Amino acid sequence: MDKLFCTMSDFQEAVKKVQPSLRREGFSSVPNVKWEDVGGLDCLKEEFESSIIRPIKYPEVYQTFEVENETEILLFGPPGCGKTLIAKAVANEAGANFIHIKGPELLNKFVGESEREVRRVFSRARACSPCIVFFDENVV
């Protein structure tokens, strides 16, 4: 045991073989949807680029100049209009993980359980940062 040690190459090889627990529990990694998969919407793409993607890709620039960036965007529209596709493309372009939550999954009849589930979602998002959390099918 005195001569047992781990080199950086050993560690890097192990990282390739180990699957993070968040991924095993159904949370996806970076989606494979690209901007090319989203037709048109150039104005919307530029808005996402400036408010979400660049701050995630280049956080040091925003920190250096103490620029506050947007942390949320509301997409709305009827089912099937491409909200999920756009959100996945944004996550892919930013190199961020993507957590897709359907609104009803958070609802619970017991007092405090829905709130606990929301806290759990954001705790997991922090653990796999950078991360885009997409709440779908929300009923207000």
TrEMBL record:
Coiled coil: none
Keyword NADP belongs to the record: no
GO cellular component: nucleus
Domain ATPase AAA-type core as annotated: residue spans: 73-137
Key words of the record: ATP-binding, Cell cycle, Cell division, Nucleotide-binding
Molecular function terms, GO-annotated: ATP binding; ATP hydrolysis activity; preribosome binding; RNA binding
Domain of life: Eukaryota
A Pfam family annotated for this UniProt entry: AAA
InterPro entries xref list: AAA_ATPase_domain, ATPase_AAA_core, P-loop_NTPase
Keyword Cell cycle: yes
Any single GO BP term: cell division
Protein name: Cell division control protein 48 homolog C isoform X2
